[in-house]
Batch of 2 targets.
Target 1
Amino acid sequence: QVQLVESGGGLVQAGGSLRLSCTASGRTLRGYDMGWFRQAPGKEREFVAAIRWRAGSTRYADSVKGRFTISRDNAKNTVSLQMNSLKPEDTAVYYCAASLGSYYGDLNSYDYWGQGTQVTVSS
């Protein structure tokens, strides 16, 4: 069992920045692909960013390319999401997820999920 806990959410003005962190317990994230998803009120959960174990390749949703950066620190067993130039439409609960066989934005390929952290961007 992998337990994931997100942190770093909060309230920020449009154009500002936040850095989200996801910390794993129960076991290391060695071999896991990691992803960030978000869900706004009344909306379906959507893909934001992912990073693979092999080669550390990354992929982003078009809506966040150039603004968000996903990274991982294997020694600390964490995954981060640096969010810059935030927009009101980025407001959502952000979830961290882990998979041993992910297909990027396919949320059904992820096996473990955190409880989420709220990000609110004001105009």
Target 2
Amino acid sequence: QVQLVESGGGLVQAGDSLRLSCAASVRTFSGYALGWFRQAPGKEREFVGSIKWSDENTYYADSVKGRFTISRDYAKTTMYLQMNSLKPEDTAVYYCAVRTTLSLRIWNPSAYGYWGQGTQVTVSS
């Protein structure tokens, strides 16, 4: 199966930046989309954004639009989440995932069949 490993989380103050990485064990995703999700304590898993592996088309949740940027590196088989102007409400465990069910919306966690272990991001005020 696909293996995904997130890294780059940490404790920062509001207004700071972080870059998360998602390293994959496979070299090609063809027409797949990869996504970033986050989950805060006591809350449901929330869509952050996605990128189509082949053409770099991206889609973002309104809550992060203009602050977060998703990119990918073909050679390293790695997806990145650049997070700027972080807010306390961004505090969560961040997961990367691979979309496998096209009949579900891209923001629906159930559309994603492969998940990483998550990396903690904590933003203090």
